[in-house]
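Quick one, T. Sequence first:
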Amino acid sequence: MSNQTQSINILAIESSCDDTAASVLSNGKVLSNVVSSQHIHELYGGVVPELASRAHQQSIVPVVDLAIKKSGLNLTDLSAIAFTKGPGLIGSLMVGSSFAKSLAYALSLPLIGVHHMEAHVLAHFIPENKPNFPFLCLTVSGGHTQIVRMDDYFSFEVIGKTIDDAAGEAFDKSAKLLGLPYPGGPLIDKYAKEGKVAFKFSQPQINELDFSFSGLKTNILYFLQKQVKENEDFIKDNINDICASIQDAIINHLMKKLKLASVQTGIKNIALAGGVSANSGLRNAIETEGLKSQWSTFIPPFEFCTDNAAMVGITAHYKFLENQFEDLNTAPLARF
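Structure tokens:
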């Protein structure tokens, strides 16, 4: 039997929101990682679910085809097909899951369903520098904000979560208040680099390890309304400092809870995951605190932070090793 036949070759598909992605992994190594982003949503200031699902329908065949070609493998070399089964936009998830199930059926291959947020955490096992168990992972995205204790690949506990809005949403909604185009989170990060923390916003007072961002968003809204009433050019004249101050407030809340989680659990292996982990301010804060508190810190490369299929593939790799397969009747779920 050839080495290629013995390899675990997985085609992974990610379609939970507005990125159509496909990746091929062999024995846990990424051979290809293709992402097609949808720019139509910029016109509407946010993701429009119906437009997202239609765009996935248009993109999924060429994206998968390109991922296969870049990998150097053939469809007949595959060992399994993986897909994101949720959470996410139900129409978008259905496009990816339907394609994955059809291909798995046609090739008589096992099917592996992957939880989107679990995939973000296990993206840490793509690079060479992998965390040791147990570790804490601050998972921050547009829809989720969690602190997850990982004791093994599939043995974990969410020990802290947002009780209302996610940190990524706080970034994007704040950007919208500033008149910045969608997606605004990366633009806040960009302008913050040129500014200083000149304005203070109230920090949420939430017990234990949970987060809250709704009050902070309201505080930012009222602050801007007051300042603009007094000076209509306030935002334009102070955009860098405003962004630096908003970013500082959000990151301080995240770091306060993460530091408390490390103290309470005694765990010093600390990881960062999710789309907001691409934020330079948050990455710097984790690394700085790591040096101060003697943490071992782990932050994925940028390409594995935002939605991508390689993170789905690496999760599927470990599921394959444990024979965790899905039935073809498995339905995607918008929420878990």
